[in-house]
Amino acid sequence: EVQLVESGGGLVQAGGSLRLSCAASGFSFDDYAIGWFRQAPGKEREGVSYISSNDGSTYYADSVKGRFTISSDNAKNTVYLQMNSLKPEDTAVYYCAADEYYRGFYWYEYDYWGQGIQVTVSS
User: Fold this and answer.
1) Which of 1, 34, 46, 102 has its CA 20 to 30 Å from the CA of residue 60?
2) Going by C-beta distance under 8 Å and a sequence separation of 6 or more, which residues neighbour residue 41?
3) Can you tell me the distance from the alpha carbon of 26 to that of 86, in angstroms, rounded to the nearest whole number?
């Protein structure tokens, strides 16, 4: 059974940092892309970052470039999203997702999803 479990969310002041983790199980981690998405109330789900686990290629949305860093520990089947210089507009539920074939930011292309975790940035 494929499982993705996010952790590390919470409440932080603007300018602060959080590190999200996505622990994956039930599939061959090395062959998949793992993406981070977020959804704020009343807004569409948007792609934040993704990593191609087989070659380590990373991609970021313009809104988070230079502030967020995605990384993976293939030995632990875990992907991290280090979020620095957080802004109130980063407040959202953050999801990790996995797909064997798709590489990109269209959330509907990803087959597997975590349950989501709240990140709240206060001003």
Assistant:
1) 1
2) none
3) 32
